[in-house]
Amino acid sequence: MKLFKGLRNVLVNQKVLFYWFLLILIVPNICLCFTESWSPMAKLTQVLLPLSVYYGLMSTLFKNCGKTLWILFPLVFLGAFQIVLLYLFGQSIIAVDMFLNLVTTNSNEALELLDKLLPAIVIVVLLYLPALIAATVLVWKKDPCPAAFLRRERRRSLWLLGGGVLALLATYLTDSRYDPKTDLYPLNVCYNVQLAFQRDAQIRHYHETAQGFKFHSRPTHPLHQREVYVMVVGETSRAQNWQLYGYPRATNPALKKIEGLTVFTHVLSESNTTHKSVPMLLSAVAASNFDSIYYQKSILTAFKEAGYATAFFSNQRYNHSFIDFFGQEADRVEFVKEAGLKADANPSDDDLLALVREELSKGADKLFIVLHTYGSHFNYRERYPADMAYFKPDAPVDAKVKYRSNLINAYDNSIRYTDRFLAQLIALLDRQEVNSAMLYTSDHGEDLFDDKRHLFLHASPVPSYYQIHVPFLLWTSASYRANYSAISQVAEQQKEKQISSSASFFPTMLQIAGIQTVSRNDTLSVVNELFKEKTRWYLDDHNRARRLTDVGLEAPDFDMLDKTGFTY
Ligand SMILES: [Zn+2]
Questions:
Q1: What is the DSSP string of 271-334?
Q2: How far is ligand 1, taken at its centre, from the CA of residue 440, in Å?
Q3: CATH architecture of 222-563
């Protein structure tokens, strides 16, 4: 009883609460000092400067520090969000994309991860909730802090501010790349919030800014010769688990037997997120010119202008952004997942084949189809029917390192299912006996607890080798190979070149179909003799192109890049 009373006295003691509130405000800064690779001086600034500001606010704003904490609630909220993310990814501040994802992606994906987030949510509640309750009690009791105490603390905060400013100056002097906008919490997160609003506005105005855009494309192939081209954008499929890329398991039994298939071996994606990677694959936009996306249209319009009937079939949900905008340029658009009556509908990628069959049966002279599959997205076991589980056991597959072998089995089953899907698609095209081609890549790869870092899934603020090495395949029909033998030959010659899927998918598809436009850069087309290996870029959260050596890849990633023969 005495202990309880003592504790209660401490908890209503303004002076104790003053320091407690200060401590919880500075916790995210302290955590970031452990997770980020900033210089020691930058870390000192990271703690001293914000602490002095919080200190100043706590001792100046109100006599009742409970009131001050509630006024600073946005900081408490950001701190909680930041700590959850640090728990999930082990590093990085809250990214622009994370704010944007709140409005552009569907909630199902976030809910899939809820299990994994639960411990972090418990930590955050334990950390912040008691302080907020204590602050509420203080406000309710209207009990002010002694004026002399606040005066003394104000003086101390000024001393601390002086120290913080000196640390900031020293950081500028010793670290030429230091920028508070990206390296000082919570300023960097506020900057990201502002960028998210700016980008959201640009997305909303896209239809106006891109309205007048034209490719001025023209066909160069004979007008009355039937041609069918299919571009397949896969999901979360990493080259490491493809038998065609040297994986020892039988994940590609069907494609292995197919004639006319060229496997490009050294292909990296310039993003590890769907919502950035897919628009780059579908347009002339890549990391090096990403902001031009607000003024451009996609490959569907380029084919349409050249006289093609076009279709966009997706097995993903609406993303309310560029994937939808670009897809909707097609003459026929179907999102099979959105067509389902039930919100939890889980159609198979095979449903897309039925739509392709339908389009082919219409017999258009010139037909171009883009397929957006769900491929190998977590939860892997839901990506293939149970009777097609070849690698077993494939359950349980919770996102935990102890289930790694089950997860790999399930993931490999999904790759094997993609193998079958692509082989069936090729067979459909082959039966048409026309000039035909299929170009496939995946938007990004996936981490599967591959090394001691225990990384899992994709879209983390810092990519890994496994998240960016993607398969890239070209299939051409016998008649196409006969009529355009040069294209097939050049493809074979260049299949081991260093390629960026994000930059090369678009011009390669246009060239295969013989479509000319000023937007087609032949030095990026992997079926063009003019193809040139270029600097490798990666698209960062601020939409800037960064060198691969400058995006936070770690030693295990560079080891894998070296081992698999990449230059970067
Ligand atoms: Zn994706």
A1: -SSHHHHHHHHHSS--GGGGGGGGG---HHHHHHHTT-EEEEEESS---SSHHHHHHTTSSEEE
A2: 14
A3: 3-Layer(aba) Sandwich (3.40)
